[in-house]
Amino acid sequence: MRSEKSNRAPLGLKVAAAAGLAFMHVPILLIFLYAFTTEEKSYQFPPPDLTTQWFAVAWDRPDVWAALTLSVKVASIATAVALVLGTLCAAAVSQTRFFGRETISLLVILPIALPGIITGIALRSAFSMADIPFSFWTIVLGHATFCIVVVYNNAVARFRRISGSLIEASMDLGADGFQTFRYVILPNIGTALLAGGMLAFALSFDEVIVTTFTAGQQSTLPIWMLEELIRPRQRPVTNVVAMIVVVVTFLPILGAYYLTRDGDQIAGAGK
Amino acid sequence: MTVVAESIILPERRGTAGRLSDFFWRHPHVLLAVLLGPPLLWLGVVYLGSLFALLLQSFFSIDDFSGLINYEFTLATYRQLLSEANLDIIIRTISMAAAVTLVSALIAFPIAYYAARYARGKWKVLFYLGVMLPLWSSYLVKIYAWKLILAKEGILTWFFERLNLLWLLDAWLSLPVVGGNSLSVSYTGTFIVFVYVWMPFMILPIQAALERVPSNLIEASSDLGGTPAQTFRYVLFPLALPGIVAGSIFTFSLTLGDYIIPQIIGSSRLFIGQAVYAQQGTAGNIPLAAAFTVVPIVIMGLYLWMAKRMGAFDAL
Description:
- The structure holds two protein chains of two kinds.
- By secondary structure, chain A is mostly helical.
- Chain A contains twelve helices and no strands.
- In chain A, helix 2 packs across helix 12 (235-260) and helix 4 crosses helix 11 (221-230).
- Chain A is globular and about 70 Å long.
- By secondary structure, chain B is mainly alpha-helical.
- Chain B is built from 16 helices and two strands.
- Chain B has a two-stranded antiparallel sheet.
- In chain B, a hairpin with a 6-residue loop joins strand 1 and strand 2 (69-70).
- In chain B, helix 2 (15-26) packs across helix 3, helix 5 crosses helix 13 and helix 11 runs antiparallel to helix 13.
- Chain B is globular, with a radius of gyration of 27 Å.
- In chain B, 43% of the residues are buried.
- At the A-B interface, helix 2, helix 4, helix 5, helix 6 and helix 7 of A face helix 2, helix 3, helix 5, helix 6 and helix 7 of B.
């Protein structure tokens, strides 16, 4: 009797939790509604009528395409850099013991723990001091800096679960270090890296604060959106782009979740 | 004897890869250096170097007449930082960050508690994704959504009109500090958007802390005659506190440094982030901008130190 009672949530808690979740989701759902509105000049609610014409208009906009392409390119390269650096760092921290190990984790987290504006302005003044012109590569450099932590966190969590005896067994059976990495470690951390990479991509794809400081004339998709937010020119196109951004960022998040949810059942776990 | 020994100890490996592998095995420090070198170069030299260079600039000053940076060690910029107008900005930002953190904790706690204690199986997955999707969805899109909601012709006004409560909204907007011409140009609007954007970061750390509370502890409390309120006050809350503090690191730090939300939804009075942006951009006063960035760094340093003492990092 008692256990049955304690397994049912009090009504107040249910209502509070449901209200909290609704607060988180309703604004995003509204974006989907506004993408179909016929109203051009204001954010009128309820929309006078619904139409799909703005999707065609947005599709024909070269500036949207240019921004989208740049964002995808930056995010891809930043993710690749973050994957390499994050994995190296995670391997060093979890597989060896050395002086200052704790400091490394702090150093990796710092770019994301400090407000983005600090990272942005620090990089900007460093670039101007070193006479590096703002370009595609300065954006990538900024993004990779704060993407490392996402890959690192995912990889470290997985490294911790790999039993050390697996690696020793591989060595005992005559594999060299590279073979052990290729055939034992990589298959075990692969999904964690993929998940970390997807999150890093989503993070970079969406970043605006650091980008405003490290970009020259280029505009990534978030910069394009920011300009529309400050000076709305084409509200219907912005609505459509906003909806597409929501859909595009949802995919890697769902993918990362499905890749890491079975992480507990990894070989050698719990030893 | 020698035959046995030879078959136990393998011969040296052949090929570059094999020899390299043996070399790393014998010299683990070299391997460590190879592993740590690239990330340390990137983060330690590029990132920390830039950060340090920025902080150094805060000890320079700007010449009032020429507008050029005077490269001489001085504390004049910090004196400028502590002028009344700038202190106003700092206090405004810190109060906003504290209010956002408090309200975020209030909204996040029931969600985290339900997810940790009652949600099972399919519901647990739904809760997790229900938190992760808004947390990771685009920052600008979230702000944009609130621009739609808070606009004068938007859904919130429509909603109040339907309930015949428009007078309540108008009464709130006519209040001195939190009010304004419409919600989208008032502190209330800024506050709502800050809470909306940063609150999801609070949920997962609280949930992680609550999941470690054994349920028989709560049963024991009620067996001993504790009312639900007492159980919450003396058992649940103290055990969840490290999680709340861990979550508050995000809400507090992110609110401290944000300059886009108050720029798009808010009044004309500045926050720290906007002040930094204005000083380095239009004003061209990099030393003062750098001095401004010291404020959130110092505050977050103190905050992290306190959080560490409270054991909040175990809840991350």
